[in-house]
Amino acid sequence: MITIIAAIAKNNALGKDNKLIWHLPADLKRFKQVTLNHHIIMGRKTFESLGKPLPNRTSIIISRNKNYKVEGCIVVNSLEEAIKAAAEDENPFILGGAEIYKQAIDIADKLDLTFVHHTFEADAFFPKIDTSIWKETSRQDFKADEKNNYDYSFVSFEKL
Question: In a 10 Å sphere around its CB, with 0-12 CB exposed, 13-18 middle and 19+ buried, how is residue 96 labelled?
Fold first, then answer.
């Protein structure tokens, strides 16, 4: 099962200038719990925004640059190669960026999304979710609090 994991705003915003736009500690905590001990697939810019391999996960970075290397990570040149590199993991996670999401949405089996109930100015966007293909299977709604500045929901979708 291939799972796309993302946090997206009302306007499908993902980020701006290769950075997250909002800070939701609850989403970061959930992201860590869900992806721990799994392969995580991401584009080079997403990896560079993280700054280092995430602990207790196998990082697979997609880069068009054949000479790109990162110690402690697997570097491949396409999404197809990334999926093959994660073959031993029964549930690898795809964590962006926008271009990788666009390529992956057709091959993914599940979407594990955090909807941030706010609109943001952005330059990277998540693809539109086609509800004739994707069925919502779970939802947890949360109100903003002293740690999380926006209302948000954890929502899972599975391919029909």
Answer: buried
Whether 73 contacts 61, CB under 8 Å? yes
| Alpha carbon distance 34, 36 (integer Å) | 6
Tens of pLDDT along 17-31? 999 899 999 999 999
DSSP 11: T
Confidence of residue 103 (pLDDT cuts 50, 70, 90): very high
Check if the beta carbon of residue 38 is closer than 8 Å to that of residue 112. no
Q: Which domains does the chain have, with CATH numbers?
A: 3-159 (3.40.430.10)
Is omega for the bond preceding 97 within 30 degrees of 0, making it cis?
yes
Q: Is 15 helix (H, G, I), strand (E, B) or coil?
A: strand
The beta strands (E) that lie in the chain are given as 3-9, 13-15, 39-43, 58-62, 74-76, 93-94, 110-116, 124-125, 134-142, 152-159
| pLDDT recorded at residue 38 | 98
